[in-house]
Write a structure and sequence with these properties.
Layout (H helix, E strand, L loop, with lengths): L1 H24 L22 E5 L1 H4 L2 H17 L10 H5 L3 H11 L12 H19 L10 H5 L3 H14 L11 E10 L2 E10 L4 H5 L6 H8 L1 H19 L9 H4 L4 H11 L15 H17 L9 H5 L3 H15 L4
Antiparallel strand pairs: 1-2, 2-3
Helix pairs in contact: 5-6, 11-16, 13-14
Length: 340
C-alpha cells in the first residue's frame, strides 16, 4: 500500500509539473509556434530561464553569424585538431572555450584537460569564464553569459561570449551587422510562470564594434596630427618600394595598392627571401572574397616569419581602411627596416 501511495504521489507531481509547463506555454505573452517543451519551464521560485525563439533561429543573418563564428573557431583551433560543428553542443562543456581563450590570449589556464562529469564541466567553465570576464569587464563589456547559461546550451549566451572575444581580439572575420534575435524569458513568481519576449542585439555596425578596440598611435595620428600623416606614409612608401622595385613594381598610394593583398604577399616573399608559388594566391583577384583570401594569406606569411598576428582584419585592408593598412605596413617596417 505504501509503495502504491508513493507511486501515485510521484505521478501526481509529474502531472502537476507538466501542467505548469503547459500553462506557461499557453501564457498570453508567449508567441505561438515556439515549440517549447513543458520540461523547459520547470523552475524554482524566483528562477528565470531564457530560450531562443525558434523563428529567430531560422533568421538568415543569425545563421550567417553562427557560420562565421564556427569557421573562425575552427581556423583558430586547427592545430589542436578541434572541429566545431554546432555551437550549443560543442561549447557547453568548456573544452572548446578553454582552448579558444588560451589560443587568443596566449595564457594557459589551470584546468583539467578532459572533464566528463557535470560538476567537472562547470568547474572548468567557471575558470574559463572568470578569466574571460577579468579580461573583458575592464574594457566596458556587459557580461551576458554565465556558467549555468553556457552549460545549459543557451545559444544566445554562447554567441554573446564568442562575439565579445572576436571583437576584443580583433578576429580576422567580418561579423554580420545588426543581428538581433528574440528570446522567450520565463520567470517564476509566487508559483506562477510569467513569460515575455525580449529582443537581444548580438551585433551592431562594424564601425561601432571596431570602436571598442583600444586606440593606438595611428588613431592619435589621424585625429590630432594629420599633418604628420604624410611623413609616415612617405617613410612607408620608401620602405616598400625599396623591396618591390626588385620586381619592377612601385607603390604610390598605400590604401589602394595593398587592398587586394598581392603586393603584401610579394613583399613578404622579398623580405623573407623566398618565392611564393602563384597557385597559393590570386594574382589578379576580382571578387571581394579573393582579395580577402590574399590578405589573409599574407598575414599567415607574416606569422610564419615570426611576426605577431596583425591586429587589423583582412576585410578592413580590402575595404581601403587606411589605419588598418598603416598598422600592417608599420609592423613590417619595424621588423624589416634594416633588411636589404
Amino acid at each position: 500500500m505504501a509503495g502504491l501511495l508513493c507511486g501515485t504521489k510521484k505521478k501526481k507531481q509529474v502531472s502537476d509539473l507538466h501542467e505548469e509547463g503547459k500553462n506557461a506555454i499557453n501564457a498570453p505573452m508567449l508567441p505561438t509556434g515556439t515549440g517549447i517543451h513543458p520540461e523547459d519551464t520547470l523552475l524554482e521560485e524566483n528562477a528565470e530561464r531564457i530560450m531562443l525563439d525558434p523563428t529567430s533561429r531560422e533568421n538568415l543573418k543569425f545563421k550567417d553569424l553562427l557560420k562565421v563564428l564556427i569557421d573562425w573557431i575552427n581556423s583558430e583551433l586547427e592545430e589542436d585538431r578541434i572541429i566545431v560543428k554546432d555551437l550549443e553542443e560543442d561549447c557547453y562543456d568548456g573544452q572548446v572555450l578553454q582552448k579558444l581563450f588560451e589560443k587568443l590570449s596566449g595564457r594557459k589556464l589551470n584546468v583539467a584537460e578532459v572533464t566528463q562529469s557535470e560538476i567537472g564541466q562547470k568547474q572548468k567553465l567557471q575558470t574559463v569564464l572568470e578569466a574571460v570576464n577579468d579580461l573583458l569587464r575592464p574594457h566596458g563589456w556587459s557580461i551576458e553569459w554565465s556558467v549555468d547559461s553556457i552549460h545549459s546550451k543557451n545559444l544566445v549566451a554562447i554567441v554573446y561570449l564568442l562575439v565579445a572575444l572576436a571583437m576584443h581580439f580583433q578576429a580576422p572575420i567580418r561579423l554580420p551587422e545588426h543581428v538581433s534575435v528574440q528570446v522567450v524569458v520565463v520567470k517564476k513568481r509566487e508559483g506562477i510562470l510569467q513569460t515575455a519576449v525580449v529582443t537581444k542585439e548580438l551585433t551592431s555596425t562594424t564601425e561601432m564594434m571596431m570602436g571598442r578596440f583600444e586606440r593606438d598611435a595611428f588613431d592619435t595620428l589621424l585625429d590630432h596630427a594629420p599633418d604628420k600623416l604624410n611623413v609616415v606614409k612617405t617613410s612607408l612608401i620608401t620602405f616598400v618600394n625599396k623591396h618591390l622595385n626588385k620586381l619592377n613594381l612601385e607603390v604610390t598610394e598605400l590604401e589602394s595598392q595593398f587592398a587586394d593583398g598581392v603586393y603584401l604577399i610579394l613583399l613578404m616573399g622579398l623580405l623573407e627571401d623566398y618565392f611564393v608559388p602563384l597557385y597559393n594566391f590570386f594574382l589578379t583577384p576580382e571578387s571581394f572574397e579573393q582579395k580577402v583570401h590574399n590578405v589573409a594569406f599574407a598575414f599567415e606569411l607574416m606569422q610564419d616569419g615570426g611576426l605577431r598576428k596583425p591586429k587589423a582584419r583582412p576585410e578592413d585592408v580590402v575595404n581601403l581602411n587606411l589605419k588598418s593598412t598603416l598598422r600592417v605596413l608599420y609592423n613590417l617596417f619595424t621588423n624589416y627596416k634594416n633588411s636589404e
